[in-house]
Specification:
The chain is α+β, with helices and mostly antiparallel strands. Among the domains are: about 90 residues; about 50 residues; about 170 residues, no CATH class; about 150 residues, Histidine kinase-like ATPase, C-terminal domain (Heat Shock Protein 90, 2-Layer Sandwich), CATH 3.30.565. About 50% of the residues lie in helices and about 20% in strands. The protein is built from 14 helices and 20 strands. Helix 1 crosses helix 2, helix 8 packs antiparallel against helix 9 and helix 11 packs parallel to helix 12. The chain is elongated, with a radius of gyration of 60 Å. The two termini are about 50 Å apart. About 0% of the residues have low confidence.
Length: about 675
């Protein structure tokens, strides 16, 4: 519907062009923001998050490393030699307390002997206790993590004997201290997380991390997620950096909302500008169209279109005026030519009507010359039986039907030099062509009449001169076979005479029937008849022939006693007997089934046998007159080759059809005779 609206007028298409050209940049920009803008911004944010994450990881790793160095430095102070005295100097405790205050974090420092007993501590609560993770101190590690506590320790050696171990300096570090390295802003979730201990430091957002990776960046449905593994001693811990999409892409979403408000306003402005501009462009074209429509209605090609501009529309108007001038001149010329052509057409038609009424060749030539002289106005015009080679002569070549070639009948000489133009020459040559056609028609009619007379004489002879003696021969041979005593050789000879006479009589009758059909002299007398009774009579007539060859012979009429159709019983009986006779003749074993099938618009007689069958390429050949297919059975049973052809013609005469089917040699055949109800 929308496409039809915009294709209806140029104004609509121009308006559409303005809208598309004006709106397309907004639309492209909007699509860019939605699809490519979001992807680009997201990737940039992911890169920035990755940098921030790396800063947090570096700060945490450097912080732990600095604590380790600080602890190692304290363990190497000379004050640690006081551990070997029975009365430990309080300087160690003051040192530990001072260092804890200097670190200013949630940490505890204490000194252990080789057995794990607390010797000195920055916290009184640790004294008189036993360190429960002594095994971790003695296995060579520098640190270990228990829940949310990181333990960093350093072996204390005597300053006077570096090989003498005095104990261990241990720092208990609360990992919650690392929270100060995390980012605490709205929409940003950072945490330090351990899969093993299930401990969170920072935001408690639960993200599914792939712990097989040291680093990963993922775009989730609601967050932009980056996470990275820390180094020792927190190698099982990850720093997680996630940003809410609504915060990260807030500017983009705000821009999209603004665009949603801007686009309708821009569209309205574009439509208004498009309407005004389209009207200004189309107005001269509408005036030109109005003038053209007026000229079309009034047929006044002398009208001129006013030209009030020098632009493309002005040039179009000028060209339109030139076209009107040319058209007006062409119409005047065409009217004059039409009058001349009409006059010539009337003259040509009158001549043709006169020529086609001639009955013989001489009359045709004389009449044609007389009619043509009326048009030449006394110019030279004559006919000769010879072929003239001059450029003014037109030879008459007609068909010689007997020899199947073109022969020269004569020449008509016309003084073409005095004609106005070549069209006059073509005009007279058209008359000559008509003369040739009439001469050929006269010859063909005469030849046809001769053939018709010969055919009538032949049919008359066939009917009276041949059938009469053949009937006598058949009668005499049958009498001799019945009443005379003959030996076996004589009996066979007389039988052959009878069979030959029957064969000739059958062929003559077939030829006569076909001739009557083709001449239109055989008519079907359609009347109500009982087709079941007809088939039963035919079945009873031919059943003995089938029994002589030991063939199964069945008739199936669906137990119907009477089915009335409108047909010619005599012709239908002839068709069915012909088909059944062929089926019995060419079937050696098996059987023949006859069935009657009722349909809505027609009755179908189906004859199916188990005989020799017919090759598919030979099916159509059998419906040609005097055509038989060469096979073993055909050599044994001679035929006229007219049975199928005659039966099909008779079926057409009954307003039905005859169809022959076979799957090939050795597969039997099937004949369908269809008749209207």
């Amino acid at each position: 519907m929308i496409t039809k609206f915009f294709n209806r007028t140029l104004y609509n298409r121009l308006l559409l062009a303005f809208i598309v050209v004006g709106f397309l940049p907004f639309f492209i920009f909007y699509l860019y923001i939605i699809y490519w803008g979001e992807e680009t911004i997201t990737q940039r944010l992911m890169d920035e998050q990755s940098i921030e994450l790396q800063k947090i990881v570096d700060n945490v790793n450097n912080h732990i490393l600095s604590l380790e160095k600080e602890l190692k430095f304290i363990s190497q102070l000379d004050v640690m030699d006081d551990l070997i005295s029975d009365d430990i100097d309080k300087r160690i405790a003051r040192l530990l307390i001072q260092k804890r205050e200097d670190i200013a974090l949630d940490v505890s420092l204490f000194v252990l002997d080789d057995k794990g007993s607390f010797i000195s501590s920055s916290e009184r609560s640790f004294l008189e206790k036993h360190f429960s993770y002594m095994d971790n101190l003695t296995n060579g590690d520098k640190y270990f993590v228990r829940k949310n506590k990181l333990y960093i320790f350093s072996k204390i050696f005597a300053s006077f004997d570096k090989a003498k171990g005095l104990g261990y300096l241990v720092m208990q570090y609360n990992l919650e201290n690392l929270n100060r390295y995390l980012v605490h802003r709205e929409g940003i979730h950072t945490s330090i997380w351990s899969e093993k201990s299930k401990v969170f430091i920072g935001d408690q957002e639960n993200f599914s991390l792939d712990v097989t990776k040291d680093f990963s960046s993922e775009i989730l449905q609601e967050h932009l997620l980056n996470y990275k593994k820390l180094s020792q001693p927190l190698e099982e811990w990850y720093v997680v950096y996630a940003v809410d999409k609504t915060i990260a892409l807030g500017f983009l979403y705000d821009l999209l909302h603004v665009m949603l408000y801007i686009i309708p306003v821009a569209l309205i402005i574009i439509v208004v500008i498009g309407i005004i501009s389209s009207k200004n462009i189309i107005r001269p074209l509408l005036e030109l169209t109005s003038s053209a429509e007026s000229i079309t209605k009034t047929k006044d090609y002398t009208t001129k279109v006013m030209i009030d501009s020098e632009d493309e529309i002005g040039r179009l108007s000028y060209a339109f005026n030139e076209l009107l001038d040319t058209t007006n001149k062409a119409l005047l010329t065409l009217e004059e030519e039409n009058r001349l052509r009409l006059k010539r057409l009337i003259e040509l038609t009158e001549i043709f009507n006169t020529i086609i009424q001639t009955k013989d060749e001489d009359e045709c030539i004389n009449t044609s010359i007389q009619e043509m002289q009326k048009l030449t106005h006394g110019q030279k015009l004559n006919f000769t039986k010879n072929r003239l080679e001059t450029h003014n002569a037109i030879a008459l070549f007609v068909d010689d039907f007997e020899n199947d070639e073109k022969v020269c009948f004569g020449s008509i000489e016309i003084d073409v030099d005095k004609m106005d133009d070549k069209n006059e020459e073509k005009f007279y040559r058209s008359i000559v062509s008509m003369i040739v056609l009439q001469l050929e028609r006269i010859r063909l009619v005469e030849k046809t009449m001769q053939a018709s007379r010969a055919k009538s004489a032949f049919i008359s002879n066939m009917s009276h001169e041949l059938r009469t003696p053949l009937n006598a021969i058949i009668g005499f041979t049958q009498y001799i076979l019945v009443y005379e005593e003959l030996n076996e050789e004589q009996n066979e000879m007389i039988g052959n005479i009878e069979n030959s006479a029957q064969y000739l009589l059958e062929m003559i009758n077939g030829i006569l029937d076909i001739a009557k059909i083709e001449a239109g002299k055989m008519e079907a007398h359609l009347e109500k008849m009982n087709i079941v009774s007809l088939l039963q009579d035919i079945y009873a007539m031919l059943e003995p022939l089938a029994e002589q060859k030991a063939l199964a012979f069945h008739l199936d009429t669906d137990d119907a006693q009477e089915i009335q159709i409108k047909s010619d019983a005599k012709l239908l009986k002839q068709i069915v007997i012909n088909m059944l006779s062929n089926a019995i003749k060419f079937t050696q074993t098996g059987g023949i089934d006859i069935s009657l099938i009722q349909k809505e618009q027609e009755i179908e007689i189906r004859i199916k046998d188990t005989g020799i069958g017919i090759a598919k390429e030979d099916l159509e050949k059998l419906f040609k007159d005097f055509t038989q297919v060469e096979n073993v059975m055909q050599k044994k049973h001679k035929g006229t080759g007219l049975g199928l052809s005659l039966s099909k013609k008779l079926a057409h005469l009954l307003q039905g059809d005859l169809i022959l089917k076979s799957e090939g040699l050795g597969h039997g055949s099937e004949i369908l005779v269809t008749l209207p109800r």
